[in-house]
Design goal:
The protein contains nine helices and eight strands. By secondary structure, it is of the alpha/beta class. The protein has one domain: TIM Barrel (Alpha-Beta Barrel). The two termini are 19 Å apart.
Length: 241
């Protein structure tokens, strides 16, 4: 699951660890600010690792398709040896200048993933929207090739839609022989446009568990499938039954 460490009010480490244990979470992506781990980051990582959860440093900004900012962030985030992986959430397709620059920005993301991976011995995972595999197959493939693993943000609230929307991306990842997770949303969705069909926020925990069981059952025979990722801790905990 994603765990966003909001500066003004970071989540309680004990609560995060408790949910992770309850829901059998094996890995948490814990956000690290630009300046590096804070005391709150240390407390959160300690609680999760104490509960047997693997922890990756989570970071990203849509501007990280140019320059060396991602490498600088990664080096600060991992300097204290807190983490067991690096998780990049850059999402250049959310930029205001995305239209007309799609290929350029995705090529930049591929370079960013390459540069980060070259400067760390930790595995580097990257968040990608599945539709990129159909709209920009070459660039999608280049990014996947440079990462150690991919999380597909297949933000739909029914198993059939999750599987259908991620099918092309999963085929591309299989060709690259990389592991992948299927990510789903449990919080409000308002960008680029609100859609109840993109999140489990209005469905509740029972529906989430039912649909994810169907997804994992369908993908059980895929050796590259590494499980489901939930966005994010706070929204997941707040889900109604």
């Amino acid at each position: 699951m994603w765990v966003w460490m909001h500066e003004a009010a970071p989540p309680d480490p004990a609560a995060v660890a408790a949910l992770a244990v309850q829901q059998r979470v094996t890995e948490a992506f814990v956000s690290v600010p630009w300046g590096g781990p804070t005391p709150a980051t240390h407390d959160q990582v300690a609680a999760l690792r104490g509960a047997g959860v693997r922890v990756s440093a989570l970071g990203g900004d849509p501007s990280w398709t140019t320059g060396a900012d991602a490498v600088t962030w990664m080096q600060r985030a991992t300097a204290a040896f807190l983490f067991q992986g690096v998780h990049l959430d850059v999402e250049p397709w959310t930029r205001r200048d995305w239209a007309g620059r799609e290929r350029e920005l995705l090529d930049g993301l591929a370079r960013t993933v390459r540069d980060v991976a070259a400067r760390t011995d930790l595995p580097v995972e990257v968040d990608l929207s599945p539709w990129l595999a159909e709209a920009h197959p070459r660039q999608f493939g280049d990014i996947v090739a440079r990462a150690d693993a991919v999380t597909l943000m297949a933000y739909r609230d029914r198993a059939a839609d999750i599987l259908a929307s991620s099918a092309a991306a999963r085929r591309a990842i299989a060709g690259a022989r990389k592991p992948y997770r299927v990510g789903v949303e449990t919080g409000p969705v308002g960008d680029p446009e609100p859609s109840a069909g993109q999140t489990f926020a209005d469905d509740g925990r029972t529906v989430l568990e039912r649909e994810l069981a169907a997804v994992t059952g369908s993908l059980a025979g895929d050796a590259r499938f590494a499980g489901v990722a939930i966005h994010d801790f706070e929204a997941w905990r707040a889900l109604q039954p």
